[in-house]
Design a protein that fits this description.
Blueprint: H1 3-48, E1 52-54, E2 58-61, E3 65-76, E4 84-97, E5 109-122, E6 162-177, E7 186-196, E8 198-199, E9 206-215, E10 219-228, E11 233-245, H2 255-264, E12 267-279, E13 287-301, E14 304-318, E15 321-331, E16 334-343, E17 349-360, E18 377-389, H3 393-396, E19 397-409, H4 416-427, E20 440-450, E21 452-462, E22 465-474, E23 479-485, H5 487-495, H6 497-509, E24 511-516, E25 521-526
Parallel strand pairs: 5-6
Antiparallel strand pairs: 1-3, 2-3, 3-4, 4-5, 6-7, 7-9, 8-9, 9-10, 10-11, 11-12, 12-13, 13-14, 14-15, 15-16, 16-17, 17-18, 18-19, 19-20, 20-21, 21-22, 22-23, 23-24, 24-25
Helix pairs in contact: 5-6
Length: 529
């Protein structure tokens, strides 16, 4: 056989060998790489992360792509010893490596794309700013409630294996459960985000961020600043949020909110901006300055309609406390001014002060016929100081206040109307609490005392009925009041000093004890104190 023929035969043999080698490389090499990469991912999770990493199928695509299905992070549930909760669940994840994986070389990631991720944030305890699994996310990191790592033990860092350049979220969901009584977890679905990152300095793990996260047409969130992967802290310069809520857009909301928005005809436009430092592991360590504006906002239900023309607030967060520098609103024909301090730990006492001027309560009602009297009416002035842990305000309320109503109709007003109706039935069928003009008045001074309101002084005139007295109204709506009621009380008011003498005598000799509940007040004649 000539040399030329032998050379010609060698060519197809070599091609066959190459094809066979490629097939073997694809079939055996990929499986081997997948097994090794999967082990590396689990090793990274076990070495760096406090939450436990699990995943289902892993596929390696040459040269640098890893596809992972059903990835989860789970942490022990502090409320159920021995059980765990999933804090992150991802249906499909695509991870891009910085280089081709080689045994003996650590994996480093430059791109993460998450499809249908679910972030499940849950408070460690009711009202806590610390979250299960996130308050101590990295092994070797200092937990805000735990010990400091031993001297000489280096803290592990996310930047050891994350050299991020791109992060993308597709159809994500955020769920937050504060674990407070009578509070449903918050859910926000169909979140999409595209984030390109650039190193922001010589420190590893520090990136400049600039992105917009949208939930069309409900909100748009724009973020500018820096984020440190190792400390899980972000410097916002600023973060801005715009929201537009309309009944017509309810179908874009989670099912739990759709009926609420439709039933309440909720609407409004919100714009807020936040700047400062936010600590993801423990929000209480954040230092932020926030402004917010709410316009053309309101809700309706049945015969009621609550609407605010404009509301603006400035809030500073530092040292685990939110300080409301000012919050002013124009609503119901009047104004409201609010200031105070609210600890981010809802078990600590908050302090709020509210001033309301010329609030026309009839504007809460839907429009009636032009000549018809509203169900209730009146101009309200109120000064209230409140102090209580928000998580336990029903049992630990403190503070005091005064409230007056003028030019009103109060026989149907919530709380006071129930008391007037009960007293009217007992005093006399000829003395009515029903006013045909807007001339009723009421004034009260009160103290918030634990689980009830202590009415130190109550005086009201409704139609032909006048009453005054004191007592308690529980937050569970139970009543214990002692009142003097009837036409003589109005006469005493007219007679001035002489009326005071009459009042002292009547207080000691006759009156009415009101018990039961606001829904079913029980009124009984009572002699003496």
């Amino acid at each position: 056989m000539s040399k030329l023929k032998r050379r010609l035969l060698i060519v197809p043999v070599m091609l066959g060998v190459l094809v066979l080698a490629g097939i073997v490389y694809r079939l055996s090499g990929s499986a081997a790489v997948e097994s090794w990469v999967g082990g590396q991912l689990l090793a990274i999770g076990g070495s760096y992360l406090e939450p436990q990493l699990r995943f289902g199928r892993l596929t390696y695509r040459r040269p640098r792509t890893i596809l992972v299905d059903h990835l989860t992070l789970s942490s022990p549930d502090p409320t159920h010893p021995g059980a765990s909760v999933v804090i992150l669940a991802v249906a499909h994840a695509r991870l891009e490596l910085t280089e081709i994986p080689r045994p003996g070389q650590p994996l480093k990631f430059s791109e993460v794309i998450l499809e249908a991720p679910e972030l499940r944030a849950m408070a460690l305890e009711p009202g806590s700013g610390r979250l299960v699994g996130f308050s101590k996310f990295m092994k070797g990191a200092v937990d805000t409630g735990g010990p400091v790592p031993a001297a000489g033990v280096p803290a592990l860092k996310l930047s050891d294996f994350l050299l991020m350049r791109h992060v993308e979220i597709i159809h994500g969901l955020i769920r937050y459960d504060p674990r407070l009584p009578d509070t449903r977890p918050m859910e926000l679905d169909d979140i999409n985000a595209h984030l390109d990152l650039a190193p922001a300095g010589p420190a590893p793990g520090l990136y400049a961020i600039g992105t917009t996260i949208t939930r069309v047409p409900i909100f748009a969130l724009a973020v500018q600043g820096q984020f440190n992967l190792d400390t899980l802290r972000a410097e916002l310069t600023p973060l801005s949020l715009r929201m537009n809520l309309r009944k017509e857009d309810a179908h874009y909301l989670p099912p739990e909110l759709q009926n609420l928005v439709r039933n309440l005809d909720a609407a409004g436009e919100f714009h807020g901006a936040v700047s400062g430092t936010i600590t993801l592991a423990d929000f209480r360590q954040s230092t932020l300055h926030a402004t917010a504006e709410l316009t053309n906002a309101g809700l309706s239900a049945g015969r009621y309609r609550f609407w605010t023309d404009a509301c603006a607030a400035t809030v500073d967060i530092a040292g685990g406390t939110a300080t409301i520098e000012k919050a002013d609103a124009r609503l119901l024909g009047g104004t409201v001014h609010l200031t105070g301090r609210i600890p981010l730990d809802a078990t600590q006492p908050a302090r709020l002060e509210l001033l309301a001027r010329d609030i026309q309560i009839e504007k809460i009602l839907r429009a009636t016929a032009p000549d018809a009297l509203p169900l209730y009416a009146g101009k309200v002035m109120a000064d209230v100081a409140f102090a209580a842990p928000l998580a336990r305000w029903r049992t630990e309320a403190g503070g005091n206040g005064i409230c007056t109503i003028r030019q009103g109709r109060i026989d149907n007003i919530p709380v006071l109307g129930s008391i007037i109706a009960g007293v009217s039935k007992v005093v006399s069928n000829t003395i009515s609490g029903h006013a045909n003009t807007l001339s009723d008045t009421a004034e009260a001074s009160f103290t918030l005392a634990g689980d009830h309101v202590q009415l130190d002084h109550l005086a009201a005139q409704s139609g032909a009925l006048a009453l005054r007295g004191s007592g308690t109204i529980g937050f569970d709506e139970h009543l214990n009041l002692r009142l003097n009621a009837g036409p003589m009380e109005r006469l005493q008011g007219i007679l001035g000093d002489v009326g005071k003498i009459w009042a002292s005598a009547s207080d000691a000799m006759a009156g009415y004890r009101v018990t039961g509940t606001l829904a079913d007040p029980q009124v009984n004649f009572e002699i003496g104190n």
